[in-house]
Write a structure and sequence with these properties.
binds 2-acetamido-2-deoxy-beta-D-glucopyranose, little secondary structure, two-stranded parallel ribbon, heparin binding, elongated, LRRNT, about 10% strand, signal, 3 helices, about 375 residues, disulfide bond, Leucine-rich repeat, LRR (right-handed beta-alpha superhelix)
Length: about 375
Amino acid sequence: MKASLCWLLPLLILASEAQDQPTKRPRTKPKQPRPPRPGRPLRPTPSFPRPQPREPAEPTDLPPPLPPGPPSLFPDCPRECYCPYDFPSALYCDSRNLRKVPVIPSRIHYLYLQNNFISELPLEAFKNASGLRWINLDNNRIRKVDQKVLERLPSLVFLYMEKNQLEEVPVALPRSLEQLRLSQNLISKIPPGAFSKLEKLLLLDLQSNRLRDDVLRPDTFQGLKSLMQLNLAHNTLRKMPPKVPPAIHQLYLDSNRIETIPSGYFKAFPNLAFIRLNYNRLSDRGLPRNCFNISNLLVLHLAHNQISSVPAISSRLEHLYLNNNSIEKINGTQICPNNLVAFHDFSSDLENVPHLRYLRLDGNHLKPPIPLDLMMCFRLLQSVVI
Ligand SMILES: *[C@@H]1O[C@H](CO)[C@@H](O)[C@H](O)[C@H]1NC(C)=O
Ligand SMILES: *[C@@H]1O[C@H](CO)[C@@H](O)[C@H](O)[C@H]1NC(C)=O
Ligand SMILES: *[C@@H]1O[C@H](CO)[C@@H](O)[C@H](O)[C@H]1NC(C)=O
Ligand SMILES: *[C@@H]1O[C@H](CO)[C@@H](O)[C@H](O)[C@H]1NC(C)=O
Protein backbone atom coordinates (compact mmCIF):
# COMPACT_ATOMS: atom_id res chain seq x y z
CA MET A 1 0.00 0.00 0.00
CA LYS A 2 1.36 3.37 -0.97
CA ALA A 3 0.40 6.58 0.64
CA SER A 4 1.55 9.89 -0.79
CA LEU A 5 5.01 9.66 -2.21
CA CYS A 6 5.02 13.06 -3.76
CA TRP A 7 7.01 14.84 -1.15
CA LEU A 8 10.73 15.03 -1.00
CA LEU A 9 13.09 16.06 1.65
CA PRO A 10 16.40 17.63 0.60
CA LEU A 11 18.22 15.52 3.16
CA LEU A 12 16.83 12.38 1.63
CA ILE A 13 18.26 13.32 -1.70
CA LEU A 14 21.52 14.02 -0.01
CA ALA A 15 21.57 10.64 1.58
CA SER A 16 20.45 8.51 -1.29
CA GLU A 17 22.65 9.68 -4.07
CA ALA A 18 25.84 7.92 -3.17
CA GLN A 19 24.32 4.58 -3.92
CA ASP A 20 21.80 5.18 -6.57
CA GLN A 21 23.84 7.19 -8.98
CA PRO A 22 27.42 6.24 -8.48
CA THR A 23 28.81 8.35 -11.28
CA LYS A 24 26.65 11.42 -11.12
CA ARG A 25 28.21 14.56 -9.85
CA PRO A 26 27.98 16.76 -7.89
CA ARG A 27 26.92 14.51 -5.11
CA THR A 28 26.65 14.50 -1.40
CA LYS A 29 29.20 16.87 -0.19
CA PRO A 30 29.62 19.69 2.16
CA LYS A 31 30.80 21.89 -0.70
CA GLN A 32 30.28 21.85 -4.40
CA PRO A 33 33.53 21.17 -6.20
CA ARG A 34 32.92 23.87 -8.71
CA PRO A 35 35.39 26.50 -9.60
CA PRO A 36 34.18 30.04 -9.25
CA ARG A 37 32.06 30.94 -12.19
CA PRO A 38 33.12 33.84 -14.28
CA GLY A 39 30.39 35.99 -15.79
CA ARG A 40 30.26 34.00 -19.01
CA PRO A 41 29.22 30.37 -19.29
CA LEU A 42 31.60 28.13 -17.42
CA ARG A 43 32.32 25.92 -20.35
CA PRO A 44 31.96 27.41 -23.78
CA THR A 45 31.82 24.99 -26.65
CA PRO A 46 35.37 24.29 -27.66
CA SER A 47 36.28 25.07 -31.20
CA PHE A 48 37.53 21.57 -32.05
CA PRO A 49 35.35 18.49 -32.29
CA ARG A 50 34.83 16.48 -29.11
CA PRO A 51 34.00 12.95 -30.10
CA GLN A 52 32.82 10.47 -27.52
CA PRO A 53 35.76 8.37 -26.38
CA ARG A 54 35.51 4.93 -27.85
CA GLU A 55 36.33 2.16 -25.39
CA PRO A 56 38.82 -0.15 -27.03
CA ALA A 57 38.44 -3.88 -26.53
CA GLU A 58 41.99 -4.23 -25.28
CA PRO A 59 44.16 -1.68 -23.55
CA THR A 60 46.72 -2.21 -26.30
CA ASP A 61 44.21 -1.14 -28.90
CA LEU A 62 43.94 2.50 -27.91
CA PRO A 63 42.30 4.89 -30.28
CA PRO A 64 44.71 7.44 -31.70
CA PRO A 65 45.02 10.72 -29.83
CA LEU A 66 42.83 13.32 -31.42
CA PRO A 67 44.48 15.94 -33.62
CA PRO A 68 45.49 19.09 -31.74
CA GLY A 69 43.05 21.93 -31.64
CA PRO A 70 43.65 25.35 -33.15
CA PRO A 71 46.18 27.61 -31.47
CA SER A 72 44.95 29.15 -28.26
CA LEU A 73 45.06 32.72 -27.13
CA PHE A 74 47.27 31.38 -24.35
CA PRO A 75 50.71 30.53 -25.69
CA ASP A 76 51.19 28.00 -22.88
CA CYS A 77 47.96 26.12 -23.61
CA PRO A 78 48.80 22.47 -24.38
CA ARG A 79 47.70 21.82 -27.95
CA GLU A 80 45.73 18.73 -26.94
CA CYS A 81 43.65 20.75 -24.47
CA TYR A 82 41.24 23.63 -24.44
CA CYS A 83 41.94 26.83 -22.53
CA PRO A 84 38.83 28.97 -22.13
CA TYR A 85 39.90 32.56 -22.60
CA ASP A 86 37.52 33.87 -19.96
CA PHE A 87 38.50 31.32 -17.36
CA PRO A 88 42.28 31.25 -17.35
CA SER A 89 42.63 29.03 -14.29
CA ALA A 90 40.81 26.10 -15.93
CA LEU A 91 42.18 23.60 -18.42
CA TYR A 92 39.99 21.11 -20.26
CA CYS A 93 41.82 18.03 -21.50
CA ASP A 94 39.00 15.55 -21.03
CA SER A 95 37.84 12.99 -23.61
CA ARG A 96 40.86 13.45 -25.86
CA ASN A 97 42.20 9.87 -25.92
CA LEU A 98 45.26 11.07 -24.03
CA ARG A 99 47.78 8.55 -22.73
CA LYS A 100 49.79 11.00 -20.72
CA VAL A 101 49.19 14.07 -18.62
CA PRO A 102 50.08 17.05 -20.81
CA VAL A 103 52.39 19.80 -19.54
CA ILE A 104 50.12 21.80 -17.28
CA PRO A 105 50.78 25.57 -17.15
CA SER A 106 51.40 26.95 -13.70
CA ARG A 107 48.36 29.29 -13.86
CA ILE A 108 45.97 26.31 -13.80
CA HIS A 109 43.86 25.56 -10.72
CA TYR A 110 41.12 23.40 -12.23
CA LEU A 111 42.21 20.51 -14.36
CA TYR A 112 39.88 18.23 -16.30
CA LEU A 113 41.50 15.02 -17.50
CA GLN A 114 38.61 12.60 -17.22
CA ASN A 115 37.72 10.07 -19.92
CA ASN A 116 41.17 9.46 -21.33
CA PHE A 117 43.60 6.54 -21.37
CA ILE A 118 46.17 7.83 -18.93
CA SER A 119 47.86 4.90 -17.25
CA GLU A 120 50.35 6.53 -14.94
CA LEU A 121 51.04 9.64 -12.90
CA PRO A 122 54.83 9.97 -13.01
CA LEU A 123 56.77 12.37 -10.81
CA GLU A 124 56.82 15.09 -13.45
CA ALA A 125 53.09 14.88 -14.18
CA PHE A 126 52.11 18.20 -12.62
CA LYS A 127 55.60 19.62 -12.50
CA ASN A 128 54.95 23.34 -12.73
CA ALA A 129 51.34 23.31 -11.70
CA SER A 130 51.76 23.51 -7.96
CA GLY A 131 48.69 25.74 -7.67
CA LEU A 132 46.30 22.97 -8.71
CA ARG A 133 43.20 22.82 -6.55
CA TRP A 134 41.04 20.40 -8.40
CA ILE A 135 42.02 17.44 -10.57
CA ASN A 136 39.54 15.19 -12.29
CA LEU A 137 41.11 11.98 -13.53
CA ASP A 138 37.95 9.89 -13.51
CA ASN A 139 37.68 7.13 -16.07
CA ASN A 140 41.27 6.63 -17.10
CA ARG A 141 43.58 3.61 -16.85
CA ILE A 142 45.72 4.70 -13.96
CA ARG A 143 47.56 1.90 -12.22
CA LYS A 144 50.63 3.67 -11.00
CA VAL A 145 50.97 6.89 -9.06
CA ASP A 146 54.44 8.11 -8.22
CA GLN A 147 55.07 8.26 -4.48
CA LYS A 148 55.85 11.97 -4.55
CA VAL A 149 53.76 13.40 -7.34
CA LEU A 150 50.80 14.36 -5.21
CA GLU A 151 52.64 15.81 -2.23
CA ARG A 152 53.90 18.54 -4.55
CA LEU A 153 50.41 19.94 -4.82
CA PRO A 154 49.95 21.85 -1.57
CA SER A 155 46.66 23.47 -2.62
CA LEU A 156 44.89 20.39 -3.89
CA VAL A 157 41.36 20.23 -2.50
CA PHE A 158 39.57 17.73 -4.76
CA LEU A 159 41.13 14.65 -6.23
CA TYR A 160 38.86 12.51 -8.35
CA MET A 161 40.21 9.22 -9.59
CA GLU A 162 37.08 7.14 -9.96
CA LYS A 163 37.06 4.35 -12.52
CA ASN A 164 40.74 3.65 -12.80
CA GLN A 165 42.86 0.59 -12.11
CA LEU A 166 44.46 1.48 -8.82
CA GLU A 167 45.26 -1.45 -6.59
CA GLU A 168 46.11 0.69 -3.62
CA VAL A 169 45.34 4.10 -2.21
CA PRO A 170 47.98 6.57 -3.45
CA VAL A 171 50.47 7.70 -0.81
CA ALA A 172 51.66 11.18 0.17
CA LEU A 173 48.31 12.77 -0.41
CA PRO A 174 48.45 16.52 0.26
CA ARG A 175 47.17 17.74 3.62
CA SER A 176 44.92 20.24 1.90
CA LEU A 177 42.61 17.55 0.47
CA GLU A 178 38.92 17.83 1.22
CA GLN A 179 37.52 15.25 -1.14
CA LEU A 180 39.10 12.02 -2.26
CA ARG A 181 37.10 9.89 -4.64
CA LEU A 182 38.59 6.53 -5.48
CA SER A 183 35.51 4.48 -6.22
CA GLN A 184 35.47 1.82 -8.92
CA ASN A 185 39.12 0.91 -8.79
CA LEU A 186 40.72 -2.39 -7.78
CA ILE A 187 41.89 -1.20 -4.40
CA SER A 188 42.72 -3.97 -1.98
CA LYS A 189 45.46 -2.18 -0.05
CA ILE A 190 45.66 0.94 2.03
CA PRO A 191 49.29 1.77 2.84
CA PRO A 192 49.87 2.56 6.53
CA GLY A 193 49.37 6.23 7.26
CA ALA A 194 47.74 6.87 3.86
CA PHE A 195 45.12 9.10 5.43
CA SER A 196 46.86 10.07 8.65
CA LYS A 197 47.62 13.69 7.72
CA LEU A 198 44.36 14.48 6.00
CA GLU A 199 42.85 16.56 8.75
CA LYS A 200 40.72 18.53 6.33
CA LEU A 201 39.29 15.61 4.44
CA LEU A 202 35.50 15.72 4.44
CA LEU A 203 34.68 13.01 1.98
CA LEU A 204 36.33 9.66 1.36
CA ASP A 205 34.79 7.51 -1.32
CA LEU A 206 36.17 3.99 -1.62
CA GLN A 207 33.06 2.28 -2.89
CA SER A 208 33.26 -0.52 -5.45
CA ASN A 209 36.75 -1.68 -4.68
CA ARG A 210 38.20 -4.87 -3.24
CA LEU A 211 38.48 -3.98 0.40
CA ARG A 212 38.40 -6.76 2.95
CA ASP A 213 38.28 -6.59 6.72
CA ASP A 214 42.00 -7.16 7.21
CA VAL A 215 42.82 -4.04 5.17
CA LEU A 216 40.99 -1.78 7.60
CA ARG A 217 43.19 -1.60 10.66
CA PRO A 218 42.39 0.34 13.81
CA ASP A 219 44.64 3.17 12.65
CA THR A 220 43.51 3.29 9.02
CA PHE A 221 41.15 6.20 9.48
CA GLN A 222 43.10 7.80 12.30
CA GLY A 223 43.74 11.47 11.74
CA LEU A 224 40.67 12.09 9.60
CA LYS A 225 39.39 14.63 12.07
CA SER A 226 36.94 16.33 9.75
CA LEU A 227 35.61 13.35 7.86
CA MET A 228 31.88 13.65 7.28
CA GLN A 229 31.17 11.05 4.65
CA LEU A 230 32.74 7.61 4.42
CA ASN A 231 31.63 5.39 1.58
CA LEU A 232 32.75 1.77 1.72
CA ALA A 233 29.81 0.32 -0.17
CA HIS A 234 30.32 -2.51 -2.68
CA ASN A 235 33.34 -4.11 -1.12
CA THR A 236 33.63 -7.46 0.66
CA LEU A 237 33.59 -6.42 4.30
CA ARG A 238 32.21 -8.87 6.84
CA LYS A 239 32.66 -6.56 9.78
CA MET A 240 31.88 -2.97 10.51
CA PRO A 241 34.95 -0.77 9.85
CA PRO A 242 36.98 -0.15 13.02
CA LYS A 243 37.66 3.29 14.47
CA VAL A 244 35.65 5.36 12.07
CA PRO A 245 36.32 9.05 12.88
CA PRO A 246 33.84 10.41 15.41
CA ALA A 247 32.86 13.45 13.28
CA ILE A 248 31.23 11.18 10.73
CA HIS A 249 27.87 12.26 9.45
CA GLN A 250 27.18 9.75 6.68
CA LEU A 251 28.33 6.15 6.68
CA TYR A 252 27.64 4.03 3.60
CA LEU A 253 28.20 0.30 3.69
CA ASP A 254 25.68 -1.13 1.25
CA SER A 255 26.45 -4.36 -0.59
CA ASN A 256 29.02 -5.86 1.70
CA ARG A 257 28.75 -9.07 3.72
CA ILE A 258 28.25 -7.62 7.15
CA GLU A 259 26.52 -9.98 9.57
CA THR A 260 26.82 -8.29 12.92
CA ILE A 261 27.14 -4.87 14.42
CA PRO A 262 29.15 -4.68 17.64
CA SER A 263 27.20 -3.53 20.64
CA GLY A 264 27.27 0.27 21.02
CA TYR A 265 29.05 0.68 17.67
CA PHE A 266 27.14 3.79 16.64
CA LYS A 267 27.28 5.42 20.05
CA ALA A 268 30.76 6.68 19.19
CA PHE A 269 29.36 9.01 16.53
CA PRO A 270 27.38 11.91 17.94
CA ASN A 271 26.76 13.45 14.50
CA LEU A 272 25.84 10.36 12.57
CA ALA A 273 22.69 11.14 10.62
CA PHE A 274 22.72 8.73 7.66
CA ILE A 275 23.46 5.03 7.75
CA ARG A 276 23.20 2.80 4.72
CA LEU A 277 23.49 -0.93 5.21
CA ASN A 278 21.31 -2.24 2.40
CA TYR A 279 22.28 -5.57 0.85
CA ASN A 280 24.21 -7.07 3.71
CA ARG A 281 23.69 -10.18 5.83
CA LEU A 282 22.21 -8.67 8.94
CA SER A 283 19.74 -10.69 10.94
CA ASP A 284 18.20 -10.16 14.37
CA ARG A 285 21.03 -12.18 15.87
CA GLY A 286 23.60 -9.70 14.58
CA LEU A 287 21.80 -6.57 15.75
CA PRO A 288 22.21 -5.68 19.42
CA ARG A 289 19.10 -4.25 20.96
CA ASN A 290 19.06 -0.46 20.62
CA CYS A 291 21.95 -0.47 18.21
CA PHE A 292 20.15 2.00 15.93
CA ASN A 293 18.42 3.82 18.77
CA ILE A 294 20.78 6.80 18.52
CA SER A 295 19.57 10.29 18.89
CA ASN A 296 20.83 12.11 15.78
CA LEU A 297 20.04 9.51 13.18
CA LEU A 298 17.70 10.77 10.48
CA VAL A 299 17.86 8.13 7.78
CA LEU A 300 18.45 4.41 8.21
CA HIS A 301 18.71 1.99 5.30
CA LEU A 302 18.49 -1.69 6.18
CA ALA A 303 16.80 -3.04 3.08
CA HIS A 304 17.71 -6.45 1.61
CA ASN A 305 18.97 -8.11 4.77
CA GLN A 306 17.53 -10.95 6.84
CA ILE A 307 16.03 -8.96 9.66
CA SER A 308 12.83 -10.36 11.17
CA SER A 309 11.89 -7.76 13.76
CA VAL A 310 11.80 -4.02 13.45
CA PRO A 311 14.76 -2.62 15.40
CA ALA A 312 14.32 0.04 18.07
CA ILE A 313 14.63 3.54 16.69
CA SER A 314 14.81 6.97 18.24
CA SER A 315 11.99 9.42 17.92
CA ARG A 316 14.15 11.64 15.67
CA LEU A 317 14.46 9.11 12.86
CA GLU A 318 12.68 10.33 9.73
CA HIS A 319 13.24 7.62 7.12
CA LEU A 320 13.43 3.91 7.69
CA TYR A 321 14.04 1.37 4.94
CA LEU A 322 13.31 -2.21 5.96
CA ASN A 323 12.06 -3.52 2.65
CA ASN A 324 13.07 -7.00 1.48
CA ASN A 325 13.77 -8.50 4.87
CA SER A 326 12.04 -11.33 6.76
CA ILE A 327 9.65 -9.37 8.94
CA GLU A 328 6.47 -11.32 9.70
CA LYS A 329 4.70 -9.07 12.10
CA ILE A 330 4.94 -5.63 13.41
CA ASN A 331 3.69 -4.36 16.74
CA GLY A 332 3.35 -0.58 16.69
CA THR A 333 3.24 -0.36 20.45
CA GLN A 334 6.54 -2.17 20.82
CA ILE A 335 8.45 -0.21 18.20
CA CYS A 336 7.03 3.14 19.22
CA PRO A 337 9.96 5.24 20.49
CA ASN A 338 7.61 7.03 22.87
CA ASN A 339 5.17 5.63 25.29
CA LEU A 340 2.14 5.31 23.09
CA VAL A 341 -0.27 5.68 25.95
CA ALA A 342 1.29 8.97 26.98
CA PHE A 343 0.11 10.80 23.88
CA HIS A 344 -3.21 9.27 23.24
CA ASP A 345 -4.41 12.76 23.82
CA PHE A 346 -4.27 13.96 20.22
CA SER A 347 -4.45 17.57 21.16
CA SER A 348 -1.06 17.41 22.86
CA ASP A 349 1.84 19.22 21.28
CA LEU A 350 3.58 17.56 18.35
CA GLU A 351 6.95 18.09 19.96
CA ASN A 352 7.20 14.57 21.27
CA VAL A 353 5.64 12.80 18.34
CA PRO A 354 8.14 10.50 16.63
CA HIS A 355 9.50 12.15 13.48
CA LEU A 356 9.23 9.11 11.23
CA ARG A 357 7.80 10.20 7.90
CA TYR A 358 8.75 7.49 5.45
CA LEU A 359 8.68 3.78 6.10
CA ARG A 360 9.39 0.94 3.67
CA LEU A 361 8.19 -2.50 4.69
CA ASP A 362 7.48 -4.07 1.31
CA GLY A 363 9.17 -7.32 0.37
CA ASN A 364 8.63 -8.78 3.85
CA HIS A 365 6.04 -11.30 5.01
CA LEU A 366 3.59 -8.62 6.01
CA LYS A 367 0.16 -7.97 4.62
CA PRO A 368 -1.88 -4.80 4.70
CA PRO A 369 -3.58 -3.22 6.51
CA ILE A 370 -1.06 -1.19 8.41
CA PRO A 371 -1.59 -1.87 12.12
CA LEU A 372 -3.50 0.87 13.81
CA ASP A 373 -1.05 1.20 16.68
CA LEU A 374 1.67 1.96 14.13
CA MET A 375 -0.32 4.87 12.77
CA MET A 376 -1.18 6.01 16.28
CA CYS A 377 2.48 6.15 17.21
CA PHE A 378 3.99 7.60 14.05
CA ARG A 379 1.54 10.37 13.44
CA LEU A 380 3.80 12.27 11.05
CA LEU A 381 4.11 9.34 8.68
CA GLN A 382 3.47 10.53 5.16
CA SER A 383 4.23 7.34 3.37
CA VAL A 384 4.25 3.68 4.32
CA VAL A 385 5.00 1.06 1.72
CA ILE A 386 3.94 -2.36 2.88
C1 LIG B 1 58.18 25.72 -15.37
O1 LIG B 1 58.26 27.00 -14.80
C2 LIG B 1 59.53 27.59 -14.97
C3 LIG B 1 59.55 28.88 -14.20
O2 LIG B 1 58.32 29.55 -14.27
C4 LIG B 1 59.77 27.80 -16.46
O3 LIG B 1 61.04 28.39 -16.67
C5 LIG B 1 59.72 26.46 -17.16
O4 LIG B 1 59.84 26.64 -18.55
C6 LIG B 1 58.43 25.77 -16.86
N1 LIG B 1 58.48 24.43 -17.37
C7 LIG B 1 57.54 23.96 -18.15
C8 LIG B 1 57.74 22.54 -18.59
O5 LIG B 1 56.56 24.60 -18.47
C1 LIG C 1 15.98 4.19 22.99
O1 LIG C 1 16.87 4.98 23.73
C2 LIG C 1 16.24 5.84 24.64
C3 LIG C 1 17.28 6.74 25.24
O2 LIG C 1 18.46 6.06 25.46
C4 LIG C 1 15.49 5.02 25.68
O3 LIG C 1 14.85 5.85 26.60
C5 LIG C 1 14.47 4.14 24.97
O4 LIG C 1 13.83 3.29 25.88
C6 LIG C 1 15.14 3.31 23.89
N1 LIG C 1 14.13 2.63 23.10
C7 LIG C 1 13.89 1.33 23.20
C8 LIG C 1 12.81 0.79 22.34
O5 LIG C 1 14.54 0.60 23.93
C1 LIG D 1 1.97 -5.33 21.09
O1 LIG D 1 2.83 -5.16 22.20
C2 LIG D 1 2.18 -4.70 23.37
C3 LIG D 1 3.23 -4.36 24.41
O2 LIG D 1 4.27 -5.30 24.41
C4 LIG D 1 1.18 -5.77 23.83
O3 LIG D 1 0.52 -5.33 25.00
C5 LIG D 1 0.18 -6.00 22.70
O4 LIG D 1 -0.72 -7.05 23.05
C6 LIG D 1 0.87 -6.34 21.40
N1 LIG D 1 -0.10 -6.34 20.32
C7 LIG D 1 -0.28 -7.37 19.53
C8 LIG D 1 -1.32 -7.21 18.47
O5 LIG D 1 0.38 -8.40 19.61
C1 LIG E 1 11.86 -6.88 -2.93
O1 LIG E 1 10.51 -6.82 -2.62
C2 LIG E 1 9.66 -6.47 -3.70
C3 LIG E 1 8.26 -6.27 -3.18
O2 LIG E 1 7.76 -7.44 -2.62
C4 LIG E 1 9.76 -7.55 -4.77
O3 LIG E 1 8.99 -7.18 -5.88
C5 LIG E 1 11.21 -7.68 -5.20
O4 LIG E 1 11.34 -8.73 -6.11
C6 LIG E 1 12.10 -7.93 -4.00
N1 LIG E 1 13.48 -7.87 -4.45
C7 LIG E 1 14.32 -8.85 -4.21
C8 LIG E 1 15.69 -8.65 -4.76
O5 LIG E 1 14.03 -9.83 -3.56
